[in-house]
Design brief:
This protein is α/β, with parallel strands linked by helices. The protein is built from eight helices and 13 strands. It has a six-stranded mixed beta sheet, sandwiched between helices. It has a three-stranded antiparallel beta sheet with strand order 4-5-8, covered by helices on one side.
């Protein structure tokens, strides 16, 4: 029988330079479990190497991981990309990595970009600056995600920096998005009042957490038989019948 499962599908780890070094795979999963989440997605900028270890801890703790990334297109649009399997996400990352400009990260200015294992050990450092735009258009990124049977979703569409509406002026219909994400700075009612065109999409809300305490600040309830990729994709297709944004700190839905 279908019921509501709680998800936060936009979380950054230690691999994102803007993410806190406290955001290790174990900390993310344990904080998600403490907040009562059923499924999570860790979506680092233009890469996903920490997912290997997030998945290990998530399996231990009984939380479903939807492998993801947050792409930055050449139009400076942030696009969330989700994949059914870890292997698919890692293969996608290998395909887009050559399109990330060969600019070295400055940890003192941008922040560290480290891969951390399930025991909180640093096991790798990403040298390329991850918060650059890929040399790929939005159209091409959406096409590439689909070629891996993934789901793409414009991130924080209400925001001026990197939001698709601010960057392009509109959401192209031909890209065929099923859902868009709104930031935790706005509730669905207000977003729809300002941008009525968002009514064509399933609205999803996530924390965009960069610190442990922010995980689960805003979550989305998905009506599913179980927290799985197939059920999640179907919930997005059902729209308002299958998806509800919730703000736990307000003890209500937006």
């Amino acid at each position: 029988m279908a019921r509501w499962f709680k998800g936060d599908l936009h979380i950054h780890s230690t691999l994102s330079p803007c993410g806190s070094l406290y955001m290790s795979p174990r900390t993310i999963v344990e904080e998600a479990k403490r907040k009562g989440l059923d499924l999570i997605a860790v979506t680092d900028h233009n890469t996903c190497d920490n997912l290997i270890y997030v998945e290990k801890v998530a399996c231990e703790e009984g939380i479903t991981l939807i492998p993801g990334m947050e792409l930055q297109t050449e139009e400076e649009v942030h696009l969330l990309a989700y994949f059914e399997t870890l292997e698919g996400a890692l293969a996608f990352k290998e395909e887009i990595y050559p399109f990330l400009p060969d600019v070295k990260n400055d940890p003192d200015y941008f922040g560290d970009q480290v891969v951390v294992d399930e025991h909180d050990n640093i096991v790798g450092v990403e040298e390329k600056l991850l918060v650059n735009s890929l040399l790929l258009s939005l159209d091409r990124c959406v096409e590439m995600v689909r070629s891996y049977q993934g789901v793409s979703m414009p991130a924080h569409v209400d925001r001026e920096p990197y939001g698709i509406i601010n960057q392009l002026g509109f959401i192209p219909d031909y890209l065929g998005f099923e859902a868009v994400e709104i930031s935790r700075a706005i509730i669905p009612r207000d977003a729809l009042s300002i941008w009525p065109e968002l009514g064509r999409y399933t609205l999803v809300g996530s924390s965009d957490a960069h610190y442990p305490e922010d995980i689960g600040a805003v979550v989305t309830l998905f009506r599913m038989e179980e927290p799985s990729w197939k059920e999640w994709v179907e919930a997005l297709e059902y729209g308002a019948e299958g998806v509800r944004i919730m703000r736990p700190f307000e003890n209500g839905t937006g």
